[in-house]
Amino acid sequence: MGKDKKKIAVFRLTSRTKLFWANLMFIFIVGGIGLQALSSQGANAQPGNQPPQQIPTGVKRVGADLSVAFPPPGVDVDADIAIIDRGVAAYHPDLNVYRCLTFSSPKSSVETNTPIVPVRGCRDENGHGTSVAGVAAAKNNNIGTVGTAPGARIWALDVCDPVCTPNAMLAAYRYVLAHADEIDVVNISLGVNFPTNFKEDKAAIEAIISKGVVVVVSAGNENIDVKGRSPSGIPAAITVSAIADTDGKCGGKGPPTPVNRVINPDDFILSASNFGSGVDFAAPGNYIRTTIPPDRYDNTASDTSVAAPHVAGAVALFKSRHPNATPAEIEKVLHNDATKVPPASLRLKAPADPLQPCDGKARGYFAHAYPPSSKVRPGSHYHYEDLLYMGNIK
Prior knowledge:
This protein is of the alpha/beta class and about 400 residues long. The chain has one domain (about 5-385): Rossmann fold. Helix content is about 20%, strand content about 15%. It contains 9 helices and 15 strands. The strands form 3 sheets. Strands 1, 2, 3, 4, 5, 6, 7, 8, 11, 12 and 15 form an 11-stranded mixed sheet that branches. A two-stranded antiparallel sheet has the order 9-10. Helix 4 links the parallel strand 4 (about 95-100) and strand 5. It is globular.
């Protein structure tokens, strides 16, 4: 985006002492009294003794590595992703963590707009935020794994210290709004118990989008309709369901996997995924290889929480090539490029082999119908949302 803030993220350090103090440097943030860690952390983390890089099945299934915009090893995507979650492991060598904030204060008041003061720097005691960040933006650096927007700058916004609260979410939204000229896309793989009308949540997300920032949210994992849910039921946001994919390609020939005691065939909608007309895209969401604290990897990340950052990464990759594109323009491009449900399946309202056609790589749809014995709600049998495809991003 031609951001001036890139200049302050580069440090010319001449000694290990200066590097140590750079990693402890804090500045006051916009929109409330607090502390913000400058991210020499992720940029200077060293790979050490790490496993060789594996391209995750999710990256393959959405065709991210087929895009001409996908960077070569050692090159980072020039875009910024805010991860509103449970924090991110800042020192992970596969992540480019640029900012770290924790929004937590039980005394804060939404009504009076009282600032929430960050109480610590970058930590992820749960592992959830680090997992999400890796799916979206793990570096293309020959170790561990790689995301759909490799090396994009991560803004880690922790709203779950110690629990995820509406007040903390709204404080994070205000922060994003204040930095809308720097942040390209927000990923929210959380569900927070806002009041049923969730007016503040909806208004905040709409305000962020109006400033040119795309908001991507996970659909949720209760196998229910997203209507009336927050934030997955907010129309202005891009809501993402999950599919089961185990071989990184279409056709349904990969091995099945269990999810909550339900066997999920390859290239099926994930049995736990929420559904409904409010869902915009589907993306891979089971047994995804990604980053975990403090500097390791895991191959079992599953549910819509890891489906959403595939889309957030796609937005970041596109925005790195088209910095002036609006949220509406970006969503339109992603829908135009996406894999659509086969017309026969849509016409018959039944899975008339939605796995065909398949090009043997990423171009092929997913199936919907689980047997009645699975106890998967009938509403999830028919998903017609577009399946993310990134191979045409350029």
